[in-house]
Amino acid sequence: MQSTNGGAVVIGASMAGLLTARVLADRFDQVTVIDRDDLPPGPDSRKGVPQGRHAHGLLASGELVFRDLFPGLMEDLVTAGAERVSVRQARWWQYGGYRVACPAPEGTFLSRPFLEAGVRQRVLSRPNVTLLRAAAYGLDVRDGRVAGVVTGGANGPVTVPAQFTVDASGRGSRVAQWLREAGYPEPPVARVHMDMTYATRLYQRTAGRLPEGTWIVTISDPDQSKRLAVAFPIEGDRWIVTLAGFHGDNAPADDAGYLAFAESLPTDDVAGIIREEEPASPIVTHRLPSNQWRHFEKVKAHPGHFLAMGDAICSFNPIYGQGMSSAALQAAALGACLDRYGPASDGLSRRFYRATAKIIANPWAIAAGGDFCYPQTTGPKPPLVDHLNRYVKKAVIAAQHDPTVATAIYQVQNLLAPPPSLMKPPMIMRVLRSARKGPTGGAVSSPTAALLAEEPAG
After folding, report:
1. Tell me, what's the pLDDT at 215?
2. What is the rounded average pLDDT for all residues in the chain?
3. What pLDDT was estimated at residue 442?
4. pTM here?
5. Residue 49 — pLDDT band, cuts 50, 70, 90?
6. b vs e for 10-46, b when ≥16 Cβ sit within 10 Å of the residue's Cβ?
7. Which domains does the chain have, with CATH numbers?
């Protein structure tokens, strides 16, 4: 599928940037990826991706795209230590009970740097992809199109010419400023403020202490607490444990405070790991004040030969694990739009932004709906979100009894089905019938005891 469309430039070697470069490499003679970081040769955290040190999830929808773009990647990562798991091995506590075991897509747990290193190695090994370490300071806009990217050089500004440019520089992208300077309207921005903070630590994972493939999610009832935690098995026989709190309810970064925060949760699953396993890293923290969506699809005029991608369009509350998968789906949409309309098409940007708006709408509804469970959350509130959240609570309780409901929720969370799929009449009837049974309860004193306990009846 190699073309002769000249050169493309991608701003940012983020996950979105790497996925974009992979898509463009099949459609342009040369792809240059610009990033200001000195990228590590292996799976190490870097300054430009501070969120990369915390627990990440690659949803099933995103993994399908990764497998398509990088055949054999996931298998190689599993061979190197990534954990392949099933929802049957999950300890997911929410609204007073654990979800029942159910059929649902398998997943792969690994650290963000481990995945990013594997993707980066494959992208940069392509003969027509090069990496340029530089900071992007602006766009070279001529005659209604972006003709290059302005970078900083030792002797002043240097313009990297481009037939096509994609900004994948993340949430902090200056794309709005660059468009304004070129005479284009800025996209309207929606922000849902939830003031989320994270504290993460790695722990050794002792073989046999918990059943193989165990992973843990514990979410406090929003009416009682703004806290939650996850513990995922990752490469290197380690746990990655992330404690999180909404609206400034911060997990402390000292040993005693970290454990006390975990012990305040409604199960002892995560606290048991913290007590029983050896730390393998310091505690690191991160704060995200809001979900943010730049609505490019609402702008009528766009410069030609240019698009934004990934977090430069929309960044979600990371606790829902949607960012990498959303970026993957956007990269797939970019490839489809380029193949159908061509990079020089006047309507390419409009069509791409409409496609991404549809991709983003579902994870945005999930994230915004979850964040508005807390009365302190502010921002554009989706219509009927309070009514929908009350129904979702019933669905979560029903999933503690009914495998069909549990499967449907996992399908939505993995972006394999839209949220309205939970509102179809047969599903509503199942939810209401099972929710009447109430939460199953079952909080236990240690993760080992929890995992050896009898599973809830299906």
Report:
1. 97
2. 92
3. 61
4. 0.92
5. confident
6. bbbbbbbbbbbbbbbbbbbebbbbbbbeebeeebebb
7. 7-81+113-189+294-369 (3.50.50.60), 84-108+191-289 (3.30.9.90)
> pLDDT digits over 163-213, tens only?
999 999 999 999 999 999 999 999 999 999 999 999 999 999 999 999 999
Q: Mean per-residue pLDDT for 66-85? A: 97
Of all residues in the chain, the percent with pLDDT exceeding 70 is 95
Q: Quick one: what percent of the chain has pLDDT higher than 90?
A: 84
